[in-house]
Specification:
This protein is about 45% helix and about 20% strand. The chain has 11 helices and 12 strands. The radius of gyration is 22 Å and the shape is globular.
Length: about 270
Amino acid sequence: MLRTTIGATTLALFLTGAAWAQDQSIIVQSTTSTANSGLYDYLLPIFQDKTGIQVNVVAVGTGQAIKNAENCDGDVLLVHAKAAEEAFVAAGFGTERTDLMFNDFVIVGPDADPAGVGGMDDVQGALTQIAEKAALFASRGDDSGTHKKEVSLWSDSGVDPTAASGDWYRETGSGMGATLNAGIGMGAYVMTDRATWISFENKQDYAIQVQGDEDMFNQYGVIPVNPEKCPEVNVDDAQTFADWLLSGEGQDAIANFKVADQQLFFPNAPEN
């Protein structure tokens, strides 16, 4: 009888431990550029080996990632649209937003360069020239962080490209990789984050035509989801992941990630 009792107790403890182990996972709602570049494939095994926490990434446009997090379909938000991120926190959906890393946006186009923007570092001037020449431009049109930035840059240039929607301005409603493929297929200019471009394999006769304007700065932030809005959030493991990314070890790991010997993301978390 005693043996049966001990066996049942041991089984109960084993099952409790197994359930705890299964709970050692989080969902990160993320922008596509961090996933498509291969950053997570590099970072997450390092983090999991250190902590035992499994990170599952949902890679969508920033707008959709924020909506998903607002619907409590994630534990951490990692995107690149600072104003939208700050609004997310202000509405109570995130506990705190912190700068994580940066790179920049570029405009790529065919070697033929029909708008004559090659070598320009004035993005508003380049966009104005593209519009004046009615040169094809492929936009994500998906409310992603890249699309939000593109819309802002068009606005700063004084051009409303949507007036030419379906003409020289083509909105794909797709992610960055699909938009690059579509743009290259039609010979259109495309604005992309540099990390995705470096990692992109179907470049054909395309090259970076516009770069170097400080307005093309691309900041990423990390935000744990607020348990007051989402009671089922895995608070501890989400905070552990955010803290690791912002730590010296995490920042070094981000800096060490390279493709074709090129650093894709530059850590800039506040000093601890």
